[in-house]
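re: ur question from earlier - yeah i can do the single chain one, its not a big deal. heres the input i used so u can compare w yours
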Amino acid sequence: MRKLLITSISLIGITAFSQEHFAGLTTSNRVGVLSATNNPAELVNMSHTFEVGFYSLSANVSNNKIGINDLFSDSDLETILFTGNDPVNLRVDTEIYGPSFGMKYKKLAFAITTKITGKLDVVDVDPNLGDGLVNAGLNSLFGSTTISNDYNQRLSGTTWGEVGLTGAMNIINNAEHKFNVGATFKLLFPGSYSNLGLDKFNGTITNTAGDVYLSNVNNVNLNIAYSGGLADNFSNVNDYTKSLIGGLNGFSGDLGINYQWRDQPEDNPKKNQNKYKLNAGLSVRNIGSMTFKDDNNYATNYVLNIPSATIGNPGLNLNQFQNVENLQEVEEILINEGYLNKVEAEKNEFTVKLPTTITAYADVKLIPKVFISGFLQQKLNENNGNDQITAQNIVTITPRFTTRFFEVFAPFSNTEIAGFSSGVGFRIGGFYLGSSSVITALASDNSKQADIYTGFRWGFL
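and the output i got, formated as tokens:
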């Protein structure tokens, strides 16, 4: 347990200053294959007839406890993480796009993309329980704390690969209006997965000078599942790279529509591509699921019961969880202590749902070369489900100055985990680099968001 949280905390410092991947770039009027990952209908608006994507990388970390100033202070980050009464939430999310290709022909457009995704999530962990498991109760060296939660708290990690096939079609195209539809079909290659879920946890944590015990636990549902590289060790960053992708075992899709209110055309036809007063879109993304199949797969549900403390039996010693490296060790400790009752047979394959979201956006021309866009992402599933990959609700406003060769933008975002953040990004030709949180990180000591994205693409004709 302790090692997993240390890994999460270290990634906050490693990942240089997204909640929203490629914020400000996917709503630009320089449209390419990357724009279609946000809304497949945008592919018909490609700024060039052909585009080759060489690479794109977006990495982000967000949490609701640790600020940027804490990373450079003498404070113990594990202690800060479990201070207060609010549940701990932390998200580490990386997307790596490999080679991609897109083309358009008359009213049609097509693209193929490749991507690897890695996620590490701490979802609604009770700070008192986390303090007992990770810090041996350093936030309260003496006394007892009673916990009663009405939700499922999770530690989860996932890696998988995707191959996306996108098609889009223009339906209406005249001097004033343009309307497109599009869809993406994705082949999913699940790599690794781990999940530890404690539903409606209740109990008493007692700390006596560092000896931490858990007692008085009644009928708590415990889910344990693991597959791939995360079956052996979930606390080492290298384990997330051992089996990033596996065999084809899942499918998903995106659906989108796009509308443009056209601007006055110029004399030069090359300058009329995506010349609009308003560009708006709506999409539903990540509709689907994937199944993990592996020789060392394991998934089952237990009921956890620990009796009230007595002088002879103070309860479950939480100190023994500090150095566990995988969920098998957690399970073995609880079984050996006699506190687990299995409620269903073990499974050697299990299915997890992708983070389905609705995305809406609008990009408005203010004056020539100056635009402002609004972006909204709403998750359709709650993050507490043991079979659910997480997503965040996001609102972003991005002013932007753009020419055909150069572009600079400044996203202002608000997420449900880290709150407000602001950043800056730019594009020079096919190269882009940005962050949706670097300004907040530099200007505020309490910023809880860190991200960076970059990539290179080549459009021609």
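The chain has eight helices and 25 strands. not sure if urs matches, ping me
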